[in-house]
Amino acid sequence: LLGAPVATALIDAARAQFMPFLASTPTLAIVRLGERPDDLAYERGIAKRAEAAGVAVAHHVLPLDATQGEVLATIEALNQDPQVAGVLLMRPLPAHLHEAAITAAIAPEKDVDGATSTSLYRVFAGAAAPSLLFSAGAEAPAAPAAPVAPAAPASLEALAAAPAGFAPATAAACIDLLDHYGIALEGARVVVVGRSLVIGKPIAALALARNATVTVCHSRTPNLAAVCREATILIAAAGQRGLITAAHVAPGATVLDVGMHVHPATGKLCGDVDFDAVAPVAAHITPVPRGVGGITSAEVIAHTLEAAARAAALNRAQ
Ligand code: NAP
User: What predicted TM-score, i.e. pTM, was given to this entire model?
Assistant: First the structure.
């Protein structure tokens, strides 16, 4: 399952739905501390995607030893700037900073990577839009997923009424990938390996909201392979290179690999799944690179377009 067609469909759908409401180019502000290679690679991916989608990117780079007050002041200024539709904070932050307090400072209506408690509440309450198809405040569908189709413009009323907040981009990317390829969550046995608040938990919550039966595994899960073999959809987000082998996968399962590592021997990107061993067993599998990762940046851009359209709709409604 390749990510590129999903990313293209998402951006096309977001442009069709939200561009009609925009009078000017929306801006995504990226806040980064220092020059971590991971952050720089992610930022480059987003900038490329943004340019193609008609979104401007403003880079706000602070030194690695920036103080809590300096980072908060940057976020606050972006919250107040009407030109800025979305704010993306590169995480994790250096250890001397209070990351939870800083993410909490992002205005929920600009929180395009679902970092704030407002966004996460929507995700865990089952009300967040797991897919662009169902955005602008609509509830998730009970029916089996359908492939992402070019969407009609959202309505002004729906946009103005939409609650603030977005699903975390990587979690949304997994759901949109499954939707795009017509792999139904309703009735599926989903096993998520990883329970971080950024990735594992929100994926599990979004899958649950779509009526999957969900198990979340972590580093203390006994007999991980046996639990994973229960999955019809296995989502690996453990941050452990090659953790998932053929022994973890039931024949015919769908396997999504969220992990991202640089292989120490080859220098190539790879995931949490041993692709060569698992591909013959699984019915569907995402590669690393060219799988989930590329959709994540598209989610951020799509959310920025939606955030800009919501802001424009609210302005008109006032
Ligand atoms: P994280 O905060 O380190 O969380 C890892 C989770 O995996 C933890 O819950 C941990 O369990 C669990 N885990 C670790 N080793 C395990 C094992 N041997 N067996 C079972 N569970 C295990 O990582 P993260 O931020 O969620 O990121 C996960 C991966 O996604 C990383 O490789 C990261 O690079 C990648 N990533 C991908 C994208 C994308 O767009 N594709 C975006 C961001 C990050 P405990 O809770 O018990 O410690």
Answer: 0.93
